Amino acid sequence: MTSKTVLPQAVILLVLVTSHVWAAKYYGKHKEVCKPWSFNVAVVVEGCQTRTVLLNQCAGTCFTEHSFSGKSCKCCKPVKKSAVKVPLHCKDKESESPYRYNHSMEQHEECSCFQC
Fold first, then answer.
1. How many CB atoms lie within 10 A of CB 32?
2. pTM of the entire structure?
3. What is the C-alpha to C-alpha distance for residues 113 and 59, in angstroms, rounded to an integer?
4. How far apart are CA 83 and CA 3, in angstroms?
5. Do 49 and 88 touch, CB atoms closer than 8 A?
6. What are the annotated GO cellular component locations (predicted)?
């Protein structure tokens, strides 16, 4: 093996080691923040009064990496969901009689980072 072939291999090895050391330091200092956050959501159903409710939805930061060996994309997604009943005040179209309607919605209870 000549010095001409050793030098490019040494540079590639140095770059790979350096990128993994940097990634370990970066991931050690920064945390993935993927969790349920409360958002105001407008519930709109025809014939009913619009109501704003507070629901949990997954949001946050997940690590994405693009390296020489490939790329790894992660997204914040729900692990556990629950059903929520939102009571709405409505009126019948023909008789205009008022009634209550329980509108079913979904909220996120637990979140985690998964492959996109």
1. 14
2. 0.64
3. 10
4. 66
5. yes
6. extracellular region
Give the DSSP H/E element, type plus range, for residue 12.
Answer: helix 3-29
Count Cβ neighbours within 10 Å for each residue of 58-88 and write b for 16 or more, e otherwise. Answer: bebebeeeeeeeeeeebebebeeeeebebeb
Residues in the chain: 116
Both tokens of 2, joined, read 């000549």
Distance between CA 20 and CA 18 in Å, rounded? 5
Cα–chain center distance at 98? 39
Token pair 């390296």 is found at: 67
In tens digits, the chain (116 residues) has pLDDT values of 554 554 555 444 333 344 444 444 545 556 779 999 999 999 999 999 999 999 999 999 998 776 677 778 899 999 999 999 999 999 999 999 999 999 999 999 999 999 98
